Amino acid sequence: MLTVYTLATCDSCRQATRWLRERNVPYTERAIRETPPPLSALRAALATHDGDVRKLFNTSGRDYRAQQLGEKLPGMTDAAALALLAANGNLVKRPFVVGPGWARAGFNAAAWETALPKA
Prior knowledge:
Layout: E1 2-6, H1 11-22, E2 27-31, H2 39-48, H3 62-66, H4 69-72, H5 78-87, E3 96-99, E4 102-105, H6 109-115
């Protein structure tokens, strides 16, 4: 079963959960602010996103800008960046989905369609 980390006010999150419902894909929804994805899921997503940790961040979010992560990320290790994401759900790109053997940040119907048969 999939776990989808969402924010109620996020349009992409609503699109993603609607997409899953339309395909009768069972999932559990979690509030990303209150329950950020665990480090293991973030590591899996990092592999899915070609090792580019920046793709896991909500770069348009207030917390990202307030912490000036655009300037800091290039000098951070992946471990430090992932720890930051695991501690603050506001920093994670939404929706964040975790399935058996895969994880992905952001909604991309084609990518999800490809990954789901494997899940």
